[in-house]
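Here's what a typical entry looks like (DNA methylase):
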Amino acid sequence: MANSPTHRFGQIIGDLLEQATVETVRPIVQKHHMYLDFIHPRPARNGNRKIHVEDALGNFHDLDLVVEEGGSEEVIGRPRAFIEVAWRRYTKHSKNKAQEISSAVLACARKYADDAPFTGTVLAGEFTENSLQQLRSQGFVVVHFPLRSIVDAFKTVGIDAYWEENTPDEKIEEQVKKFEHLTDSEIETIKHHLFQEEKDSFEIFAKVLDQSLDRHVSRVSITSLWGNKKPLEQLKMLVII
């Protein structure tokens, strides 16, 4: 059921993970004077919350976080990084989610291949090693918070985030209500503990993102078998010569 306590708790975990990712990535994006788009009402898309990115075939994909060069709240920039965030409680759902992420992100990345955009994903919960390796083999930088990390993070504020398929709805509903009464400080405690759990992995993620955003094509030099070498400032000038 869409309104079941387990669905609601899953939304809470997913939203919290996305907030924490935005807060962690934003300083890197600002360092490079770029714009971080996330799910929120944005004037550049007529106040719509969702991020719709068009791929090379004209198909649109809903994404979680996109770093834009030349973007702002009012202007859509050129994508330089695509970051997806996902939570899955059971491994039976993780393979499909990994395939969904790779299909959408890689289709969009191909359209902007000239910029070699960063592709990353922050996952939490029960993902199989095969699912994680599939993403890594396709060029994704992956941060994975195993279920125990989620459970331990929520435990710091007295919430039991562990459940099975046969766990009574009443028990899960009780934990949801506890979360809804947390203070901002307690929510920050969960996020801080979560990222401390996988600090090393996220440092690698942040480093690769930083290096990717720092990379620019400054000049393309073409040397033919006959004639003179011709330096070009932009790739699109290739069609002119």
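The first helix runs from residue 5 to 31.

More examples are in the samples folder.
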